[in-house]
Specification:
The structure holds two protein chains of two kinds. Chain A is mostly helical. Chain A is built from seven helices and no strands. The chains are: A mainly alpha, B mainly alpha. Chains A and B meet through helix 1, helix 2, helix 3, helix 4 and helix 5 of A and helix 1, helix 2, helix 3, helix 4 and strand 1 of B.
């Protein structure tokens, strides 16, 4: 079982594994693997806690009800799975500022926190705007040969590469 | 009893589906972490075109999943669910997502994995931001839906439908193209 505690696996092996998981998801759950809807549901749940149950009447939450569903459990599983993987390889550690960020922008946690927060807001809007994220469109959608997903995935990288080149 | 009926019987059982979601998410997160793509440095390296790990993981997942899912479909075991889209939603939303992708350095799936390995900027910065962004979108959705999201709408279209051919006519060349691209990336030492 030594392979479970390796720090890294071949990216090709990892990709093949994710592709197979997608097939299993279609088979067992009739759904493609996708993560971003769970955030929309959580956001609706938090809003519901603050503003009451009428939040569920919003048009968007009629489409994606703010309740715990399959995709929500999937994202919870991702956190747990990555935790196990990192624990087994001794990589788990609390980190405020990633190394590559601190090389360019310094290691002040607040600055990194703000950038991550603002980036997160933009990404949250973009993911719902495009109807999916790097998993739902980028992998699960493109493998179904969906036109929407190929367009979105290409635009994720165009926007991402241009922005990264600008800020670094 | 037909095997496809066994699977279809599972699809409507909500409690079991929640457990299956968790059981699929856990290896998904495990794989993402082992692949290195739950790390900010690796994702930003991809966007700066210095580290091609993300592309390697994604494209090998696409080839495997594309062949697998279309095989299962040909055997009548699964139904595919291509997402609907439009230029207004897929292109504009995709570009907005990309800007956030570069600022945050994670995506909605890999950030969950990053949090699992201890990323605090991911948990308190990025995840909080994604939740707020998703909430803002839900608030603006009725207006956006009327104005932009339906621009040049093409619905749940797939390339085989667009070109009116058997899916395998597209699957095979795309698979070969992706494998060649990966070989090229390896060969150029990226």
């Amino acid at each position: 079982m030594e392979w479970l505690s390796l720090k890294e696996w071949s990216p090709y092996l990892v990709g093949i594994g994710i592709g197979l998981l997608n097939c299993i998801a279609f088979l067992l759950s009739d759904k493609p693997l996708a993560c971003s809807t769970a955030y929309s549901r959580t956001s609706g749940m938090i809003e519901g806690l603050c503003l009451g149950p009428k939040v569920a009447d919003k048009a968007y939450y009629k489409k994606f009800p703010p309740t715990i569903e399959w995709d929500w459990m999937l994202v919870l599983g991702v956190i747990i799975g990555a935790f196990f993987s990192a624990m087994l390889s001794g990589q788990f550690h609390l980190e405020w500022v990633p190394a590559k960020w601190s090389l360019t922008f310094g290691n002040t946690p607040f600055v990194r926190w703000m950038a991550a927060f603002i980036g997160g807001i933009i990404m949250g809007i973009g993911a719902r705007w495009a109807g999916g994220c790097t998993s739902g469109h980028g992998i699960s959608g493109t493998l179904q040969l969906a036109v929407s997903s190929w367009l979105a995935a290409i635009c994720f990288f165009i926007g991402g590469i241009l922005t990264a080149m600008l800020i670094f | 009893m037909e095997i496809s009926k066994v699977f279809k019987g599972l699809h409507t059982r909500k409690g079991i589906q929640l457990v299956i979601g968790l059981l699929l998410g856990t290896p998904f997160g495990f794989l993402l972490q082992k692949g290195g793509v739950t790390r900010y440095d690796v994702i930003i390296g991809q966007l700066l075109l210095t580290d091609f790990t993300v592309v390697k993981v994604m494209l090998s997942a696409v080839v495997t999943g594309m062949i697998g899912a279309h095989l299962l479909r040909s055997f009548g075991l699964v139904t595919l669910h291509p997402k609907p889209g439009s230029l207004g939603s897929s292109v504009i939303g995709g570009l907005i997502f990309g800007v956030g992708f570069a600022l945050l350095g994670y995506c909605p799936g890999t950030i969950a994995g990053a949090v699992g390995q201890g990323s605090l900027d991911g948990l308190l910065g990025g995840m909080a931001g994604i939740l707020l962004g998703a909430g803002l979108f839900a608030q603006a959705y009725p207006k956006l839906d009327r104005s932009i999201l339906k621009r040049a709408d093409f619905g749940e279209l797939t390339f085989p439908q667009l070109f009116k051919v058997n899916p395998w006519i597209i699957v095979l060349p795309v698979a070969i193209g992706i494998v060649l691209l990966l070989l090229l990336i390896e060969k150029s030492g990226l």
